[in-house]
Write a structure and sequence with these properties.
single chain, about 425 residues, mainly beta, eight-stranded mixed β-sheet, five-stranded mixed β-sheet, 2 helices, 30 strands
Length: about 425
Amino acid sequence: MPRLSVLLAATSTCVALASPSLAQSEGTGTTPVVLCAGGAVPQLGEGIISNGSEPLRAPAAQVPSTEGIAFAFTIADGAQDVRLEASAEGGGDPKLVLETPGGSAVAENDDGPFGLSSLIETRLEPGSYCLRVLPVSSDSMVANVQVARADQPALVSDPQADSAIPACGPDTDALPLVETSVNAETAGKTLTRRLDPSPGLFRFEITEDVPLRIDAREVNGSDPILKLFAADGTVLSENDDTVGRSARMDFLPSLPAGQYCLGVSSLQPTGMIDLILEQVSPEQLAREAFDLAMIPPLSAPDHPVQEIDLTKQREVIFTSGSAATWLRFTLDEERLVDIRTFGSLTGLDLQLSLFQGMERIALVDDSEGIAPDARLVEVLLPGTYWLAVNDLRGGAMQRPAGLMIRLFSEVPLSTTP
């Protein structure tokens, strides 16, 4: 869910107590008890946010599965710009609700800008407040909670900050990618380097214009990103997630001769990255686009396409693997077309892509949970259609799959399975 902090009441009307001294406290010790919405809750840390205060923290707080947990704190020394945060340890999805001691809602948030952690950023007038930490699911969790001024260090930082690729200018330190030139290292072969997921900069030379692919493949949970710099530090290209989590940059008709700097990193600190450079051709890119069901093989007579005569055949058995299976059929009149795949029992996760000419008019998989396999229901006009079926898991092993097409002259009352 995108970051959302909803102010539920004007700040000027959210003040429950005019001064810190009016907060009702019970008990003794370092954690006084404060009344929030009629119930006694512990004070968060030292309890006061002021011009000279330290952040208020509750590390490793146990959050019950139903009612959650609440803390009280007080704003002093005039209005303060504050940041309220909660992050779960070892899994969990915390939600923050800021209230007055009387129970009036001030602001709430679930899922700030960094994953499932919650964040409220607002300006609070002097007085006392109650902060509730609730589990979004029914499971209990352990959460770290912090309330601090906006100018103090945050509890949760951008997890991608450490993975950012630094700029690479003429004087930037960078390792050599190859000993000679990329042209020599990729002539009739591929150049492969296995890298750790931390950011790295690598220099290389192109001696003659070359059609080049730079591929950073995910290994064991990494999430590679790529950035290519010219010799003067200008960013020429960058990429994340071209195929699955792997990053790729294709330079056609060619990458010009010159000096370059390549930045490689991972958005996840786990796993490894396989960096692969190879020379490619337009024909190779077209075949890959066919295999990934990105475009239909309209002008590729050598690419396998199964023709279906819907007047004679409505069911197709085929094998599916890493490359899409292409089928073609023609409609003589407007019809409601119901297409289903059957492959989950053989370990496939099938996706359907329907094209008319170069235009993809439908793309479906099982993400809606209607059935374990993909299903496409469309009203189609007369014409020729190209249908691609591909396995989202992209396995190299060929597995059997089935396809069934039903035609209706009128829209049926129900399209549920």
